Amino acid sequence: MDLFEHNIANDRLAPLAERMRPQRLEDFVGQEQLLGPGKLLRQLIESDQLTSAIFWGPPGTGKTTLGHLIARSTASRFVFFSAVLGSLKEVREILAEARQQRAYQHRKTLLFVDEIHRFNKAQQDAFLPAVETGDIILIGATTENPSFEINSALLSRSRVFVLEALPAAAIKSLITRALKSAEGLADYHLEINAEALDFLAEKAGGDARIALGAIENAALSGGAKVIDLPVIAEALQTRALAYDKGGEEHYNVISAFIKSLRGSDPDGAIYWLARMLDAGEDPLFIVRRMVVFASEDIGNADPRALQLAMATQQAAHFVGMPEARICLAQAVTYLASAPKSNASYVAIGKALAEIRKSGALPVPKHLRNAPTSLLKSLDYGKDYQYAHDFAGAVSNQQHLPDALAGRQYYQPSERGYEKLIGERLEHLRGLRKTKT
Fold first, then answer.
1. For the whole model, what pTM was predicted?
2. Which among 103, 94, 84, 101 has a CA at the least distance from the CA of 127?
3. Out of 1.25.40.10, 3.40.50.2000, 1.10.8.60, 1.10.760.10, which CATH number does the structure's domain 168-235 have?
4. pLDDT of residue 2
5. pLDDT range class, residue 111, cuts 50, 70, 90
6. Sequence-separated (6 or more) residues with CB below 8 Å from residue 176
7. Domains of the chain: which residue ranges?
8. How many alpha carbons fall within 13 Å on the CB side of residue 137?
């Protein structure tokens, strides 16, 4: 008997998340982009026409549950295999049986491989011949990016379906259903207040398994019949930090974070980073603010700051939490310790203010484009000085509108690399004066 033949819903010893797995596609919560009416994956499952596929998404988003539902709906022989617990020897046995079933029973095998990324690419090669011959339809479930973790030959023969972290509304629906369901916690006659429900839906981070595990812990604690914020926070083994991603404290904490960076205090900055991460803030929101900070408050005092901030964005997206916290910490301590300059920020502000004041001043004729004979006859581009024709690649040419000649918007600071930029600009000004 394989895992999917066992009726978990009636096993009172099974974890709540297992007991609450839906038995029908109609009861599946979330992933509307894949399973909504008329969507491709729903049609393929309902028509039993699913081809080899990869289900990719964060933990607790329904990948294995989809496997259960497919097992109930397909006419093919269904086999569940865990790449965490299974071995290549078992894979070969499954594939041998699949060949027999196809040859003598004219029946395909639908092989669901949970955590397929736990097999390295060489091990994954074992599935390829059976996929190519049609002995099996392979469905792999993974939390890791298939582009990097799945054998390219398998990937090219599979359709990738991306599951997203469950929204708070879906988590709330699952919790409410579990409290009322006979398979769930109905016997406990529990309720959960709005504050605790909001907190749990937020802290679950889109993971149904975490949410259902927490509500089960709260029920088993044997406390009051109404689950409130302290109870659910204890069940999650976390503190109910004062942090609302859409409220005032959200803006207070991010403000404290940016001001700690600006104040060159890595200890303060790392503390506020930890506060945000512990409260469930989106790491990419934090990185976006760091990218802006790298240009606004560091700029050319250390041009590497922007490079590091952008690299952190890529790293956080690539590895995900919780490991991404390390990448964020490295970037935060670097940005806080870097020399500071807001000269670029001030320069664009001055230039925009000038434009609002003086309007669209005409481009000097020598800087204009002259692609036609008419424009050339109007002296467009005439007397343009090609910088590379001059010593040091510097001419005394004016690049601002006539009304703004000599205006300076960018004034480098005396800090970090920008001090060198300032010295170079002074040198260039000197060269231009000698060519007057």
1. 0.55
2. 94
3. 1.10.8.60
4. 45
5. very high
6. 192, 197
7. 31-162, 168-235, 248-337, 352-434
8. 21
